[in-house]
Amino acid sequence: MDLSKIKTLIDFVGRSNVSELTVTEKDVTVRIFRTPDQAASTAPAQVPEKAAAGPAASSRHASANAPASTIAVKAPLFGVLHRAPAPKEEPFVGIGDTVEEGQTLFIIEAMKVFNKIVAPRAGRILRLTDVDGSEVETGDVLAEIA
């Protein structure tokens, strides 16, 4: 399956009410899905998000013990997380940095497509995941913004 066909499928899911689409062509399967967070990316975080991370959160994710005024930035898709724009370059953000809404925080590489993960609001970075160059799952907490 070529990249233009994948891009067309991604655009279709983005424009429609479809929440998940799986397409198999020959021996390649593409799975595209939209989480409720993507539909309302500017909505403030709710308290249940913090409770969902709870004590079962692994050490590779940001802590769930954040003040109520924080918003968790979660991975919208499965892929390889990159904290910098290129190897041997400085990360997009660090702990304590002030970010603007829409500023790039990470890149997630999925099927050779690089997806920018942006700040949903302006604020200060309280916590960052220690994952870099490894896989993240959909819903993993990548950062917390106060």
UniProtKB/TrEMBL annotation:
Alphabetized InterPro entries for the sequence: AcCoA_biotinCC (IPR001249), Biotin_BS (IPR001882), Biotin_Carboxyl_Carrier/Decarb (IPR050709), Biotin_lipoyl (IPR000089), Single_hybrid_motif (IPR011053)
Keywords from the named record: Biotin, Fatty acid biosynthesis, Fatty acid metabolism, Lipid biosynthesis, Lipid metabolism
One of the record's GO cellular component terms: acetyl-CoA carboxylase complex
Region (Disordered) location: 39-65
Stretches with biased composition (Low complexity): 51-64
GO biological process, one term: fatty acid biosynthetic process
UniProt pathway annotation: Lipid metabolism; fatty acid biosynthesis
Molecular function GO labels: acetyl-CoA carboxylase activity
Domain Lipoyl-binding: 70-146
Function: This protein is a component of the acetyl coenzyme A carboxylase complex; first, biotin carboxylase catalyzes the carboxylation of the carrier protein and then the transcarboxylase transfers the carboxyl group to form malonyl-CoA.
Protein name: Biotin carboxyl carrier protein of acetyl-CoA carboxylase
